[in-house]
Amino acid sequence: MAGVFRYSDDNKRFHSYSYYLKKRFGRKVYKVPLNLDLGCPNRDGTKGVGGCAFCSAKAGGDFAGDPMKSLEEQFDGVRAVMAGKWPGGLCIPYFQAGSNTYGDTELLETVFERAMALDNAVGLSIATRADCIDKDKAEMLGRLARRTFLTVELGLQTVHDETAAAMNRCHTYRDFLKAYELLRAQGVDLCVHIINGLPGEDREMMLCTAETVGALDIFEMKIHLLHVLKGTALEKMYERGEFRTLEREEYIGIVCDQLELIPAEVVIGRLTGDGDRTELVAPMWSRDKRRVLNGIDMELARRGTWQGFRLCQGGGIDKGQKM
Ligand code: SF4
User: Fold this and answer.
1) The CATH number of the domain where 167 resides is what?
2) 98 CA distance to ligand 1 centroid (A)?
3) Which residue ranges of the chain lie beneath pLDDT 70?
C-alpha cells in the first residue's frame, strides 16, 4: 500500500528510523548495544546522587552489553544472534547505557574508533548527558562524525526545568542547549529523548517540549512513555500517590498531537518506552507495545493528519504530504 506521508512507504504517517535507514543504506541495519560502564555523574556525586528519579539501578537500558567483556566480545555475542535473523545486514554499534562521554576524551576516541572498525559497522550511536559534553568532547565527536554516520543521543526528557528538578535530573534546559550548540557547531547529528507523563506535567507542557525540541536543528527524536520501575525514587512517589501514570488512549492522543508539531524531516526513533518488563510497576498496559504503536497509526489515520501537519499553517515548512 502506498503511504500518504512523504517519508513513508507504508501506512506510517511519521518519519520512522527504519524508513530512514532503509532509504540511506538500502538494506537492514540493526543496532548492537555495547556497554562501557562509564557510570553517570548524576549517580556518583559529581552532579548529583541517586540518579534521575525514574532511572533504575541498571542505569540506562535492559539490552546493554556485559561490561565485563571486551567491546569485541560484546559485539560478537549480539552479532551472532542478529546475523542469523538478518543475514547480510549492516550494523550500528550503540553505546546506550549510562553516560558515554563521561571519561577521558582521548581514551573515548580510541574506543569509539574500535567500534567503528567492527565488522559491517556503518555508523555509531552514542548516548550521553548534556553536561558530559564540553568543547573537547564536541570536537572529538565532530571528527568521528566526518568519518561515519554518527548520532549523539542526548537525554533531555523535558524543557521544563521545574519538572527536571523534581526528577533530580541535575541539569537544566540551558545546560542541554549548551551541549546542543557545541555539537551542532561540529556538525554532529543529534537525537533528543523526551518523556511523556512526568509528574506535574499536563498535556500542554508535553506538547511544548515536543514542539520546542522539534524546532531545533536535530536529526532524530525519541518519544518515551514514563515507566515506574521497581526500586526507583519514582516508585516511592507513585506509592505515595503523588502522581498518576498516563492511560493508553491518553498517551496515544498526546503522541499524535506531538507528531503533528514536529517537522516531517525529523526522524522518529521511538514512540513509546521500552522499560524492563520484569521491573515494571506501572503502567502495565505499556507491555503491549504493538497495541500502542498500532493505536498511534490508527489515530493519525482517523484524524487524517501526519507528522508536521500543524506546522503547515506557518507556511514554508514541509507539510510532509506526498504530492
Ligand atoms: S542521566 Fe541517565 S544514566 Fe544517569 S541517572 Fe539519569 S537516566 Fe540514569
Assistant:
1) 3.20.20.70
2) 6
3) 1-3, 57-64, 313-323
Give the dihedral sign, CA 140/122/187/157. Answer: negative
Instruction: Name 121's bridge partners.
Output: 91
**Residue 4 located in a structural domain:** no
pLDDT tens digits for range 264-296: 999 999 999 777 788 999 999 999 999 999 999
pTM as predicted: 0.94
Cα separation, 214 vs 159, whole angstroms: 12
Largest CA distance in the chain: 54
Which residue of 42, 157, 229 sits with most ligand 1 atoms within 8 Å of its CB, as the best mutation to test the pocket? 42
249 Cα–ligand 1 center, Å: 28
Angle at 208 between CA 207 and CA 214, to 5 degrees: 90
**Spatial separation of the C-alpha atoms in residues 105 and 58, rounded to whole Å:** 24
- Beta carbons within 8 Å of 163's beta carbon, 6+ residues apart: 157, 198, 199, 200, 201, 205
The predicted pLDDT at position 4 comes to: 84
| 28/25 Cα distance (integer angstroms) | 8
How many domains, in total, are found in the chain?
1
| 1 located within any domain | no
Range of the domain at 158: 17-314
Measured between alpha carbons, how far is residue 182 from residues 4, 130, 157 in Å?
Answer: 37, 10, 19
